[in-house]
Amino acid sequence: MRTLDDKLVNRLEEILGAKNLVTDPEALEAYGRDETPGLFHPPAAAARPGSAAEAAAVLKAAREAGVPVTPRGAGTGL
């Protein structure tokens, strides 16, 4: 699993608050799959923005750090 640089983690925590940035490997397992059989790819982190402005700031920080972002919906696989 890829890890994030501390500078980016700190920036994301500034944007979201620590409770809205998931970095615990065990907690991230739920973000690595949906209902598609056999599909599992845990992320390095999961950001849970509370507004469009936070989402935009997260995407900007990731772009500046050269880190790819994969949007996630409800995880239903539909």
Task: Classify the secondary structure makeup into a structural class.
Answer: mainly alpha
Q: Please tell me the overall pLDDT.
A: 89
Count the beta strands: 2
User: Which percent bin holds the helix content?
Assistant: 25-40%
Instruction: Sum up the overall morphology in one term.
Output: globular
Question: Radius of gyration in whole Å, from Cα?
Answer: 13 Å
Query: What series of H and E elements makes up the topology?
Result: HEHEH
Give the amount of beta strand, in percent: 5-15%
Number of separate helices = 3
* Largest beta sheet: strand ordering: 1-2
Kindly, what is the distance between the CA atoms of the first and last residues, rounded to a whole number of angstroms? 25 Å
- Let me know the largest β-sheet: 2 strands, antiparallel
pLDDT < 50 runs, ≥5 residues: none
Topology summary:
Elements: H1 6-16, E1 21-22, H2 25-28, E2 46-47, H3 52-65
Antiparallel strand pairs: 1-2
Helix pairs in contact: 1-3
Describe the structure.
The chain has helices spanning 6-16, 25-28, 52-65, and strands spanning 21-22, 46-47. With 78 residues, it is mostly helical. It has a two-stranded antiparallel sheet. Helix 1 packs antiparallel against helix 3. The longest helix is centred in the C-terminal third of the chain and has 14 residues, at 52-65. The mean pLDDT is 89.
